[in-house]
Amino acid sequence: AQASTSPRPLRIIALANQKGGVGKTTTAINLGTALAAIGERVLIIDLDPQGNASTGLGIDRRQRRLSTYDVLAGEAELRQAVLVTAVPRLSVAPSTMDLLGLEMAMASEADRAQRLRRVLAPLAREDVPEHERFTYVLIDCPPSLNLLTLNALAAADAVLVPLQCEFFALEGLSQLLRTVEQVKAALNPRLTIQGIVLTMFDPRNNLSTQVVADVREFMGDKVYETMIPRNVRVSEAPSHGKPVLLYDLKCAGSQAYLRLASEIIQREGRLPAAA
Ligand code: ADP
Ligand code: MG
C-alpha cells in the first residue's frame, strides 16, 4: 500500500437547534477543546450575536476588533478575525452584537445565505500549509432558524444537534429536520446529519430517561451513545473564560466531551490525529 500524503480532510459541522439553552455553545466549546486535545486543529465560528462561545473561550469584548459580522459582510478576511485561544490547536472567530444587524444589512443581497460557505471555502484548499490547516470547523448557531443559521447549514458538511432531555425535545427536532431538508434541496445537497447529542442528562430524573428512550427510538443510531450529564462544573467554567476541560479535566462533563469527540472521529472512520 502506498503511504498517503494527502492532508487530513476538513470537516465543517454546524451546531444547530432553534431552541435556546440546549447546550449548543457549551458543546461547541467543549467538543472543540476535546477534538483539539486529541490532535485535531479546530476553528470555532461564533455565529451567535450573544457571543457566548467567544466569552466562554476567554476572548473579552475588547479583543473582538474584527468579528464574524465583518467577515460575513465582506469587510474583513476570515483569517484577520481568527484569534488563538488558551487551548493549543483551538482558534475562534468571535462574534459581537453587530451580528444582530446582518439580516437587515443583507436584505437585498441575492447570495445572503451563501456568505459563510464562500468565506470557508479557502480553508479546504490544498495549498494551505499543513500547520495552518484546520481539520474541524464547528459553527455555533444562534437559537433561531434565521439567516445566520441558514448560512451555517449552507456551509456545513453536517449538522450536529444538541438536544436537551426534556419534554418538548422531539417536537423541536422535527422542525429542525424539516429545515435541514429544505436547505438540502435549495442550498446544500451534501448536507447530512452528523448526529444528535443528548445534553444535560440526569439519570435520576424519570422524564429525562423517557425522553432518551423516545429520541433513540425516533432517530436510531444517529443518536450518540455518549450523553452529556448535567454537571455543575460545566456550567461554572464559562464564567472563568475556560472550557470545562481546562477548568476541571476530571469532572464527569469533561470526560463525557472527551468520549463524544472520540465517538465522532470513530464514526467518521478517522484515525486520531498525531497530536
Ligand atoms: P445554547 O447555546 O443552546 O443556548 P448553552 O450551551 O449556552 O445553550 O447552555 C445553556 C445553559 O446551560 C448555560 O448556562 C450552560 O452553562 C448550561 N449547561 C450546558 N450544558 C450543561 C451541562 N452539561 N451541565 C450543566 N449545565 C450546562
Ligand atoms: Mg448558544
TrEMBL record:
Residues 11-193 form the AAA domain. It comes from the Bacteria. It holds the Pfam family AAA_31. SUPFAM superfamilies: P-loop containing nucleoside triphosphate hydrolases (SSF52540). This is Chromosome partitioning protein ParA.
